[in-house]
Amino acid sequence: MISKKAKYAIKALKVLTEEYGKGPVLISYISAKENIPKKFLEAILLELRNHGILQSQKGKGGGYLLRVDPGRVNLAQVLRVIDGPIAPTPCVSFNFYVKCDDCTDEITCALKPIMERVRDANLGVYENTTLLSFQNPTSIETKEIPIGAKAAELTEAASNRMSA
């Protein structure tokens, strides 16, 4: 489950994507439009700026704007900035790997392969969803994957999504 902070970050980025190319957007505008507490939003936008997703301009006519094209920013990037690891357990994280403290042997662990599949399924969606998806939400193709699907089926579903 993503945090409320991540959800607010995504909502704020949706507004900034809608306003992309039009100049800086005021925090108060984003806050009112998406019903995000202003102080909380300030901290979120500052964090996104510090990680190179946003830029800010001070003074009259100032505010926040996307630093890069919205087609180059995906949800995985945003979630990692705001929430950290995407993986459900630390032992399957690509960027934040840590051996699980209660695991005696990762090689024979029955849970690890399942958590790798969960990670891969989530990453397939997050990495293939850019901020541009907010401009036309009906264009986001989804395909239900049956419970118990094999890794090959998950890969096929992901490649079908990417080629569409």
From TrEMBL:
<keyword id="KW-0238">DNA-binding</keyword>
<dbReference type="InterPro" id="IPR036390">
    <property type="entry name" value="WH_DNA-bd_sf"/>
</dbReference>
<dbReference type="InterPro" id="IPR036388">
    <property type="entry name" value="WH-like_DNA-bd_sf"/>
</dbReference>
<dbReference type="InterPro" id="IPR030489">
    <property type="entry name" value="TR_Rrf2-type_CS"/>
</dbReference>
<dbReference type="Pfam" id="PF02082">
    <property type="entry name" value="Rrf2"/>
</dbReference>
<protein>
    <submittedName>
        <fullName>RrF2 family transcriptional regulator</fullName>
    </submittedName>
</protein>
<dbReference type="InterPro" id="IPR000944">
    <property type="entry name" value="Tscrpt_reg_Rrf2"/>
</dbReference>
